[in-house]
Amino acid sequence: MSQNNIIYLDNAATTVVNSEVLEAYNKAKKLYFANPSSIHIPGQEANRLLEKARAQILSLLGVNDYDCIFTSGATEANNLAIKGYCLKHSNRGKHIITTNIEHPSVLEAFKQLEETFGFEVTYLPVNKNGVVEIDSLKSCLRKDTILVSVMAVNNEIGSINNIHEISLLLKNYPTTVFHVDVTQGIGKIKLPYSDIDMFSFSGHKIHGLNSSGALIKKHKIELLPLLSGGGQEYGIRSGTNDVALAVSLAKALRLEIEKIDENYAKVKVFAEFLLKYLSENKDLYEVNSGENPYIVNFSLLNKKASVLVEALSSNGVMVSSTSACHAKEEPISYVVKALGKSDQLAHNTVRVSFSHTNTLDDVKGLVTTLDRLIKELK
Fold first, then answer.
1. Tell me, what's the pLDDT at 378?
2. 19-258 has which fold?
3. What is the rounded CA–CA span in Å between residue 317 and residue 309?
4. What value does the mean pLDDT take over residues 316-324?
5. pLDDT at residue 327 above 70?
6. Which of 80, 176, 283, 331 sits a CA distance of 20 to 30 A from 164?
7. Can you give the residue ranges of every domain in the chain?
8. Mean per-residue pLDDT, 118-122
9. Is 325 tagged catalytic?
10. End-to-end CA distance of the chain, in Å?
11. How far is CA 203 from CA 21, 337, 371, in A?
12. Fold of the CATH domain 2-16+259-376
């Protein structure tokens, strides 16, 4: 997407809001302003719209027999799933498993459970492609393992875990619940949602609005509420619902899923164009990402990524170095480091993340500018 001579290629951080989504939000905000918990007519009309949005999301994902809990985004949804489940069921066991390349909202939740609440955490390593190997997970499972959380798609390198294979393994462990952060995969790649016990996502990654998201879970799974109050959202997430945000989330998800194959094919052309340039300049770049065309991650071999990203920005091209959630605090990519790569490579990563709203001219503009700057920078 180009606007005012800006090429925006940081879609894994956030996406431009779809005009149809914004229109749906504004309409719902104006017409259905009442509190959906109120018993008067406007309140009940708002509640019907809220429940319609909830049902639509579940239908789109093929999990009609699940609960959809609206949240402020994936960070809240991840925390609710992980801490809500573990604190509710600590009597069943205090061993939990995740990976060493999860989003900070998952890793920090596990860290808090470990340091404050006495849980034992196993942080699974990933292979050189950034994927959890099933044998590695199997070797760590125990009778007291109550939760496994593995992301579907990594937010820095785009690696895709085999969620179906993991779910099949965990069927042999009926006391272990499977949580997946699907934020970077939902609406982009096809995922086996019905194989998962709980999954989380955000609206702003799929051309929806900030502060919209959801935790989807099986009916039978009980969570300890992290927010106490009036008992909204099945008593799990109290607080007055924003009906318009719920409507916008359902709209954004529908628009992405309807064109998931078309969008994937379009983005694949962009990734292939960039990867061709990178492969032709192996003395300058090392590619860290794999088969997912939505995210291309590479390291600079003899330049500083922070300097290059800033120079690209000054030239109207927007990319990132590490995860947006850690960009100001974490100078090294713990994800790239987990692939077994050197500190030098992990310190100098560049992430280009595409959307179907981009054009091939955007990618050509990136390559032209990148090629010029990499030769100019000291």
1. 75
2. Aspartate Aminotransferase; domain 2 (3.40.640)
3. 9
4. 83
5. no
6. 80
7. 2-16+259-376, 19-258
8. 98
9. yes
10. 30
11. 10, 29, 34
12. Aspartate Aminotransferase, domain 1 (3.90.1150)
Q: Which of 68, 86, 140, 325 is catalytic?
A: 325
Residue 261's contacts (CB-CB under 8 Å, 6 or more residues apart) are none
What is the pLDDT, as a whole number, of residue 53? 98
Interacting residues of 244 by C-beta distance below 8 A, sequence separation 6+: 25, 26, 28, 29, 32
Q: Please tell me the distance from the alpha carbon of residue 307 to that of residue 305, in angstroms, as a whole number.
A: 5
Per-residue model confidence (pLDDT) at position 240: 96
Lookup result for tokens 């030098």: 344
For CA atoms 256, 258, 261, 265, the dihedral sign is negative
Query: Which CA distances in Å does 79 have to 2, 82, 214, 269?
Result: 35, 5, 12, 36
Q: Does the pLDDT of residue 242 top 70, yes or no?
A: yes
